[in-house]
Amino acid sequence: MKPHPAPSQDLPQPARRQRRVRRKDARPGELLDAALDLFVQKGYAATRVEEVAARAGVSKGTLFLYFPSKEDLFKAVVRENIAGRFSEWQLELDSFEGDSEALLRRCYAVWWERIGSTRASGITKLMVGEARNFPALARFYHQEVTEPGTALVRRILERGIARGEIRTLDLQTGVYLVLAPMVFLTLWQNSMAPCLPGQDAGASLPFSPEAYLETQIDNLLRGLRP
Fold first, then answer.
1. Domains along the sequence of the chain with CATH
2. CB atoms within 10 A of CB 103
3. CB atoms near residue 93 (< 10 Å)
C-alpha cells in the first residue's frame, strides 16, 4: 500500500507556494504569542528562546530570523500587546464627547477589556519583579509604556480641570492616583491569585475585578470633584 501524500503535496505548485507565504507571514505573530505566554509564566530571565521557538513550532534559527535576540523578542511582545495601543487610545480621547466621569469610567473599562483581563497584564508584574536586574529593559518599558500611559491619564485630568469637572490638583500625583487600582489588580492577578486554590487567576480572585474597579472609580470621583 502506497503511503498517502502530505496534504500540501496534493496542492498545485502555486497553491503550495501561497500556503508557504501565508505560513511565513503568520510566524512572527505565533512567536510573539508563544513568547507572551512564557514571559508571563516564567519571567524574563527564566524564559529561553528555545522554549519560545518550540512552543511556536519553529526552530531557534527561524526565531532569530525575526527577532535577533531575546531582548528584541521581549520588546516586540510589549509593543504588540501594550505600547502599540497608545495611538488608538489617544484618538479615542480626542473624539470623546462625554463628561469627565464618563471618560474615567470608559478609561477603566477599556483598560480592563484590552489589557487587564488579558495575558498582557502579566507584563506589568514581570517588569516590577525584574526591572532592577535588566535596567535596559526597564528604560525601554518606561519609555514605551509608562511615559505614554501617564501622559494619557494626565490629558484626561487636564481636560476635566479645564471643563470645571475636576478640582485643581497636583497632576503628577493625580495621575498615579488613577493608575494605582490598575497596577494593584494586575499584580494581584499575576502573583497571589494563581497561587490560591484552583490555580485559576480569574476564579481565584476573592472579589470581582469589575466590582473592584467600579468601587475605585466611585471613590476616585468623590475625591476629584470640585
1. 7-78 (1.10.10.60), 82-224 (1.10.357)
2. 19
3. 15
Give the 3-state DSSP-derived string for the chain, with helices as H, strands as E and coil as C: CCCCCCHHHHCCHHHHHHHHHHHHHHHHHHHHHHHHHHHHHHCCCCCCHHHHHHHHCCCHHHHHHHCCCHHHHHHHHHHHHCHHHHHHHHHHHHHCCCCHHHHHHHHHHHHHHHHHCCHHHHHHHHHHHHHHHCHHHHHHHHHHHHHHHHHHHHHHHHHHHHCCCCCCCCHHHHHHHHHHHHHHHHHHHHCCHHHCCCCCHHHHCCCCHHHHHHHHHHHHHHHHCC
Whole-number mean pLDDT of the chain? 87
* Residues of the chain above pLDDT 70, percent: 82
Residues in the chain: 226
- Residue 203, pLDDT > 70, answer no
pTM: 0.82
The predicted-structure confidence for 26-65, as pLDDT tens digits, reads as follows 589 999 999 999 999 999 999 999 999 999 999 999 999 9
